[in-house]
Design a protein that fits this description.
The chain has 281 residues and is an alpha+beta fold. The protein folds into 2 domains: 92 residues, Winged helix-like DNA-binding domain superfamily/Winged helix DNA-binding domain (Arc Repressor Mutant, subunit A, Orthogonal Bundle), CATH 1.10.10; 168 residues, Beta-Lactamase (2-Layer Sandwich). The strands form 2 sheets. The chain has a 6-stranded antiparallel beta sheet with strand order 5-4-3-8-7-6, with helices on both faces. It has a two-stranded antiparallel sheet with strand order 1-2. The longest helix is centred in the last third of the chain and has 21 residues. The termini are far apart. InterPro entries: GAF-like_dom_sf (IPR029016), HTH_MetabolicPath_Reg (IPR050707), Tscrpt_reg_IclR_C (IPR014757), Tscrpt_reg_IclR_N (IPR005471), WH-like_DNA-bd_sf (IPR036388), WH_DNA-bd_sf (IPR036390). Keywords: DNA-binding, Transcription, Transcription regulation. One of its GO terms (molecular function) is DNA binding. It comes from Tistlia consotensis USBA 355.
């Protein structure tokens, strides 16, 4: 197996859904869980997957995978290509629209995001917490030669990224402890490796309004993040700016971009859409 195929395999393995404890809960539908896991096991690098690969990734027998995929094709969420492999179908995008339309504030933050992206000659993104990850819901800026351009719907880790740490800083008390326990259970080795960095970044967000990640998630990027707050319906929201590492200067992030990002977050909160939660007693 070539190096490229090894990398692709590793990325695919990272996409295998992990729901510890869910199989022990008799009130959950295992068929529905498996069907959704099939959709989740596709990564951005996968054009198509066959029964055998889906079976390997999920640890399911091939007849079960075949039956579930046939059902998903019937529903319009998968389609088959000329070789008989499965591809995600455009109908899945229709599921995104109601989610995004319930976040009208995405359009309100776009102006400040564009200003920040222009200021740092990088990109800006806003993300919300979702389980053990964050999900990008708005992005701005796409400089030429950019090593990674985030897109709406892309996910990233809470425990080793500026955006993720900013989101974690919005949790307090039992909610914060439970989230850390969830991350520890799902990502034991990574969580241990980044535990000190996570604790320091969360504390900095709470005290200074921002944090900085020097390639902790994507080695070729340096990013600053700031918590925006929680929406009326309970979503945790944060903003981040990133630039390629080869032209990132630590002092710029620490004394210029980071504080500016925190100020921008303060200004955005004046709209009343986001509120910083009070620390738990």
């Amino acid at each position: 197996m070539t190096k490229a195929r090894n990398i692709a395999k590793a990325r695919a393995d990272e996409r295998v859904p992990r729901n510890p404890g869910s199989e022990q809960d008799a009130s959950l539908s295992s068929t529905l869980i498996r069907g959704i896991e099939i959709l989740q096991c596709f990564s951005s690098g996968d054009r198509a997957l066959g029964n055998a690969e889906i079976s390997r990734r999920l640890g399911l027998n091939r007849p079960t995978v075949s039956r579930l995929c046939k059902t998903l094709v019937h529903l319009g969420y998968l389609r088959r290509d000329a070789k008989g492999a499965f591809r995600l179908a455009p109908k899945l995008l229709a599921l995104n629209y109601p989610v995004l339309s319930a976040m009208p504030w995405r359009h309100e933050v776009l102006g400040p995001m564009r200003e920040l992206a222009e200021l740092c000659a990088g990109n800006a993104s806003v993300g919300v917490m979702s389980g053990d990850s964050f999900v990008h819901v708005q992005t701005a800026g796409s400089p030429p030669g950019w090593p990674h351009i985030p897109d709406i719907g892309q996910t990233g880790p809470l425990h080793r990224s500026a955006l993720g740490w900013s989101l974690l800083s919005l949790l307090h008390g039992r909610e914060f402890a439970d989230k850390l326990a969830e991350l520890r259970a799902l990502h034991a080795e990574e969580f241990a490796a980044f535990a000190d960095a996570t604790a320091a970044a969360v504390e900095r967000c709470r005290k200074q309004g921002f944090c900085v990640s020097y390639g902790d998630w994507r080695p070729n990027l340096v990013a600053a993040g700031a918590p925006l707050g929680r929406t009326e319906d309970g979503l945790c929201v944060a903003i981040a700016c990133a630039v390629p590492r080869y032209r990132a200067v630590a002092s710029y992030f620490e004394t210029d971009l980071g504080p500016r990002l925190a100020e921008a977050a303060d200004a955005i909160r004046l709209s009343g859409v986001f509120a910083l939660p009070a620390p738990a007693d």
